């Protein structure tokens, strides 16, 4: 079973349901408990502030509740906060480290709690959003470019309105495609403020807004700091009072098999065991080994998070125990919904405006992509807007952009997407190639290819050819590609937040079968590329799995079987280097050029990307002959190398 993820984009559940899912305590509930005391205190503060303001006082008062220390628990004793340090870290890590500026769910809640009670800011925000539709209607792309190029000189109401609605980060980025940047856009609210007569008529200027906003930010930061201090203090007290943690006896373990503890108790034990493991010399029980603690931890984490033993073992091999918890926690939270602008049909700025007009709350994904948007919430189904129907965007996970960014297909090239359905990457390739050249979109599954064809039509792709071969046969069907993408079938351990069944539905045989297939496919992908391509000669291998067996081990196998390729830089700006050794096994040093992406560090699906350059179409065989490999070990002998 395990904990279930809750999509930030979902309609919020009623509180009672939200707190208990599958009868288990969720992290959300823990967060709520943690912040309950703070919320109560803030309400008191707010009331005090209002009283002080009514009495003519201007100064921000230090909250009395805080001066008195944290709110006492019901039994009058200080209690440890419900959320562990590892969880706090996980929460912080769930913020996109590399680029995105999304707030985590509970951060958003905190921000809401911090909102002043006077309603002023809310009123301003509401009136802004009411103006959305008018301000963007009729703004065609020419107007938009003119507005952008006049940089700050705009004095029309429409421009003022536009600036109020658009996220600042979009204002400075008018590219709409990966390779162009029209620049322009307003730089800051200060500039805008120079010509905001219309707003002054309403008694509110942008400068006012900005000042108020800064004051509120400062107040919020102060509050957050106080809350942090309180929590740390409470944790320290508990730390000091804590008794030595004892592992359950063998009998207790047996009893728990039939009558498991409730989730909050298991969660506490997980925290305790991690605390011991992280300070083993000091906190261990002399009679217990590290393995004893690890065994208990695995049992508890399997139960708490709902993984099978096999996958739990595999994942624990990847991370330290603390980081493993961060990974598991991140898998309980849905990744942000992201869309890719289809630059064959729209520019990102225009698309963003159209969606904002529909009340969609969005932002660019990050600096690394000029076509991605994160959708925070939407009053309309994001997969059913007129813009979606018109093919202006694809709903696509941010991590799924990465293999295509790395592949970097060029105009007029011949590109193979070896396992293409449902077509997120095929259609991105076509867009980067501006519908020129040829994209062969292959997938072994005819069933899945229906969605591929539908997406190709919807997005207006006209340079794609769809086929249904087993990728392992491909070199015998067609070859000479400038670039090949192999987004391989995999176990999906990077996308557990989307598909929790991955936690339990794979065992050792599945991994064996998958890795064999991946190894055969990667050789076919390499053999399908023309090393003499004037513009390319590249292969990108990607998976949405984080296991080394499916990632580095497959790439290392390819390097050993195909000495006519080498790994090159993925050209991706972030991501962790791949492993060059793992559990006593060494991989080729160049594996450090591959990139790993994790939900808990990058707030995107777990992904792996490796990029090869093919150096020659032939390889030298052991018997000194040169062969042109054609995938899966089928070789055509070439003439013997002349004796030296
Ligand atoms: C990770 S998905 C591909 C996702 C796709 N690249 C995208 O971005 O939308 C892997 C795909 O591999 C296909 N597949 C599985 N075995 C295959 C094989 N032997 N040859 C080609 N495709 C295969 C599956 O049908 C599945 O659609």
From TrEMBL:
<dbReference type="GO" id="GO:0070475">
    <property type="term" value="P:rRNA base methylation"/>
</dbReference>
<feature type="compositionally biased region" description="Acidic residues">
    <location>
        <begin position="127"/>
        <end position="146"/>
    </location>
</feature>
<dbReference type="GO" id="GO:0003723">
    <property type="term" value="F:RNA binding"/>
</dbReference>
<feature type="compositionally biased region" description="Basic residues">
    <location>
        <begin position="76"/>
        <end position="92"/>
    </location>
</feature>
<dbReference type="InterPro" id="IPR011023">
    <property type="entry name" value="Nop2p"/>
</dbReference>
<feature type="binding site">
    <location>
        <position position="487"/>
    </location>
    <ligand>
        <name>S-adenosyl-L-methionine</name>
    </ligand>
</feature>
<dbReference type="Pfam" id="PF01189">
    <property type="entry name" value="Methyltr_RsmB-F"/>
</dbReference>
<comment type="similarity">
    <text>Belongs to the class I-like SAM-binding methyltransferase superfamily. RsmB/NOP family.</text>
</comment>
<feature type="active site" description="Nucleophile">
    <location>
        <position position="544"/>
    </location>
</feature>
<feature type="binding site">
    <location>
        <position position="470"/>
    </location>
    <ligand>
        <name>S-adenosyl-L-methionine</name>
    </ligand>
</feature>
<dbReference type="InterPro" id="IPR001678">
    <property type="entry name" value="MeTrfase_RsmB-F_NOP2_dom"/>
</dbReference>
<dbReference type="InterPro" id="IPR023273">
    <property type="entry name" value="RCMT_NOP2"/>
</dbReference>
<dbReference type="InterPro" id="IPR018314">
    <property type="entry name" value="RsmB/NOL1/NOP2-like_CS"/>
</dbReference>
<keyword id="KW-0949">S-adenosyl-L-methionine</keyword>
<feature type="binding site">
    <location>
        <begin position="419"/>
        <end position="425"/>
    </location>
    <ligand>
        <name>S-adenosyl-L-methionine</name>
    </ligand>
</feature>
<keyword id="KW-0690">Ribosome biogenesis</keyword>
<dbReference type="GO" id="GO:0009383">
    <property type="term" value="F:rRNA (cytosine-C5-)-methyltransferase activity"/>
</dbReference>
<dbReference type="InterPro" id="IPR049560">
    <property type="entry name" value="MeTrfase_RsmB-F_NOP2_cat"/>
</dbReference>
<feature type="binding site">
    <location>
        <position position="443"/>
    </location>
    <ligand>
        <name>S-adenosyl-L-methionine</name>
    </ligand>
</feature>
<feature type="domain" description="SAM-dependent MTase RsmB/NOP-type">
    <location>
        <begin position="327"/>
        <end position="615"/>
    </location>
</feature>
<feature type="region of interest" description="Disordered">
    <location>
        <begin position="1"/>
        <end position="205"/>
    </location>
</feature>
<feature type="compositionally biased region" description="Acidic residues">
    <location>
        <begin position="188"/>
        <end position="203"/>
    </location>
</feature>
<dbReference type="GO" id="GO:0000470">
    <property type="term" value="P:maturation of LSU-rRNA"/>
</dbReference>
<protein>
    <recommendedName>
        <fullName>Nucleolar protein 2</fullName>
    </recommendedName>
</protein>
<keyword id="KW-0489">Methyltransferase</keyword>
<feature type="compositionally biased region" description="Basic and acidic residues">
    <location>
        <begin position="17"/>
        <end position="44"/>
    </location>
</feature>
<dbReference type="GO" id="GO:0005730">
    <property type="term" value="C:nucleolus"/>
</dbReference>
<dbReference type="InterPro" id="IPR029063">
    <property type="entry name" value="SAM-dependent_MTases_sf"/>
</dbReference>
<keyword id="KW-0694">RNA-binding</keyword>
<keyword id="KW-0808">Transferase</keyword>
<keyword id="KW-0539">Nucleus</keyword>
<dbReference type="InterPro" id="IPR023267">
    <property type="entry name" value="RCMT"/>
</dbReference>
């Amino acid at each position: 079973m395990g904990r279930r993820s809750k999509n930030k984009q979902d309609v919020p559940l009623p509180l009672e349901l939200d707190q208990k899912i599958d009868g288990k305590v969720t992290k959300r509930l823990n967060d709520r408990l943690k912040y309950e005391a703070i919320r109560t205190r803030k309400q008191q503060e707010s009331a005090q502030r209002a009283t002080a303001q009514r009495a003519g006082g201007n100064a921000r008062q230090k909250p009395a509740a805080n001066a008195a220390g944290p709110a006492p628990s019901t039994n009058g004793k200080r209690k440890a906060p419900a959320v562990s340090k590892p969880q706090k870290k996980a929460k912080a890590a769930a913020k996109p480290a590399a680029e995105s500026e999304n707030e985590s769910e509970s951060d958003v809640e905190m921000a809401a709690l911090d909102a002043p009670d006077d309603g002023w800011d809310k009123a301003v925000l509401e009136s802004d959003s009411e103006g959305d539709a008018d301000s963007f209607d009729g703004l065609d792309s020419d107007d938009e470019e003119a507005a952008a190029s006049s940089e700050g000189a705009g004095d029309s109401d429409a421009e003022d309105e536009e600036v109020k609605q658009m996220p600042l980060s979009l204002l400075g980025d008018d590219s709409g495609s990966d390779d162009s940047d029209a620049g322009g856009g307003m730089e800051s609210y200060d500039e805008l403020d120079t010509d905001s007569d219309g707003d002054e008529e309403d008694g509110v200027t942008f400068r006012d807004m900005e000042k108020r906003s800064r004051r509120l930010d400062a107040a919020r930061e102060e509050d957050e700091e106080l809350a942090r201090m309180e929590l740390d203090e409470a944790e320290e007290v508990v730390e000091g009072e804590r008794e030595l943690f004892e592992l359950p006896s063998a009998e207790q373990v047996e009893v728990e098999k039939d009558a498991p503890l409730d989730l909050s108790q298991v969660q506490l034990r997980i925290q305790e065991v991690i605390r011991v493991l992280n300070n083993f010399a000091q906190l261990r029980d002399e009679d217990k080994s590290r393995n004893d603690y690890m065994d208990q931890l695995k049992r508890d984490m399997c139960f708490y998070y709902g993984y099978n033993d096999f996958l739990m073992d595999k994942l624990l091999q990847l991370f330290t125990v603390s980081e493993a918890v961060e990974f598991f926690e991140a898998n309980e939270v849905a990744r942000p919904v992201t869309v890719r602008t289809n630059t064959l049909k729209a520019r990102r700025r225009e698309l963003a405006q159209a969606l904002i007009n529909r009340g969609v709350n969005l932002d660019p994904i990050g600096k690394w992509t000029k076509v991605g948007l994160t959708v925070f919430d939407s009053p309309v189904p994001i997969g059913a807007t007129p813009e979606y129907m018109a093919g202006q965007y694809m709903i696509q996970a941010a991590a799924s952009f990465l293999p295509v960014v790395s592949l970097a297909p060029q105009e007029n090239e011949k590109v193979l997407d070896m396992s293409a359905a449902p077509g997120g990457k095929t259609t991105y390739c076509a867009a980067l190639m501006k519908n020129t050249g040829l994209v062969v979109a292959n997938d072994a599954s005819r069933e899945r290819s229906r969605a591929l064809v539908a997406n190709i039509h919807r997005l207006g792709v006209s340079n794609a050819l769809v086929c249904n071969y087993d990728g392992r046969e491909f070199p015998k069907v067609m070859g000479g590609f400038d670039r090949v993408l192999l987004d391989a079938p995999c176990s999906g351990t990077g996308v557990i937040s989307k598909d929790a069944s991955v936690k339990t539905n794979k065992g050792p045989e599945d991994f064996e079968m998958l890795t064999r297939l991946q190894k055969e496919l990667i050789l076919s992908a390499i053999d399908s590329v023309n090393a003499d391509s004037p513009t390319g000669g590249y292969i990108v291998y990607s998976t949405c799995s984080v296991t080394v067996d499916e990632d580095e081990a497959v790439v290392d196998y390819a390097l050993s079987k195909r000495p006519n390729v080498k790994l090159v830089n993925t050209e991706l700006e972030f991501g962790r280097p791949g492993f060059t050794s793992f559990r006593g096994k060494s991989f080729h040093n160049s594996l450090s050029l591959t990139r790993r992406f994790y939900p808990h560090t990058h707030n995107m699906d777990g992904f792996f990307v490796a990029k090869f350059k093919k150096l020659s179409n032939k390889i030298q065989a052991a018997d000194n002959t040169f062969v042109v490999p054609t995938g899966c070990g089928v070789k055509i002998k070439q003439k013997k190398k002349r004796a030296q």
